[in-house]
From TrEMBL:
GO MF assignments: protein-tyrosine sulfotransferase activity
Record keywords, A-Z: Transferase
Cited InterPro entries: P-loop_NTPase (IPR027417), TPST-like (IPR026634)
Organism for this UniProt entry: Methylomonas lenta
Protein name: Sulfotransferase
Amino acid sequence: MNNINPPIFIVGAPRSGTTLLQYMLKSHPEISLPTGESHFFIPIYQRHAEFGDLKVKENLKFLLTEIYNARPDFFDDDFHGIKFDINILSDQLHALKTSTIPDVISTIFQMNATAEHKKYWGEKTPYYILHLPLIKEMFPNARIVHIIRDGRDCAISMLERRWDLRIYNIYHAAYTWNKYVRSGKDFGINNPDCYFEIKYTNLLNSPHKSLKALCKFLNIEYNESIINFERSNESGKTPLLTRPLQANNTQKWRNHMSIKELQIFEAMAGSTLTEYGYELSNPCASISKFNHLVYEAHIKLCDIYFNFFRN
């Protein structure tokens, strides 16, 4: 049953607008998107040898147990079509003769979509952008949607949630943003037919145009419900999900980043910013070897603190 309908993966650097795009697309009458993030696709797939022959029902049950235990809150709170009942699902999947981990995942998500009366299933976990070749191996006809936001604005938002995201300073934020965006770009160069980039600024400033282009890429008819998407009342979600789109939610870095922070960020990620058309405040920005060492040491110390006192 794997990939009867092409799955949709929303990816991007942290705080790039992936959640906003997730809620917009899930409002389309044909697209099912859980409201959380799965996180388990890659680690479970990398453990495939542990699960043995999935045609054996007990092995299938073991796999389903590990999938559920990896993200119980995701399946209990964010999966809105079916209940993740291991016994029922193992019976259904066994009857369908699913024999691979991607088949199992795809079938469960497709069941969830069907229960929501939708045709396509999708998923939003930003860090999957670092594993897109593996995602394509798992789901050969997957459609990858990469949302890109000015990294300096991402950095401000990342550092507001530094302990949640474990991104501790401007150097760390620049490195992370650059790594994520370059990973997506490199994949897209080699896989142009299944990869689509959408800029956060365009999504806010010209949503109809941007989303019509996205729907064309997905080969799905555009529907106004994407613009008039269902808002979230959850306090933990991004504020943009509780109010209309705000075109001015850009270039926050001009008022919220110091000259030193801008210098560090642009020294680390300036070429990628320029490639995507973002104006640099200092095209000649550089970072000394000493500052590299100081920021790296700070990251390690914060990790030690997190592991011993906050975890």
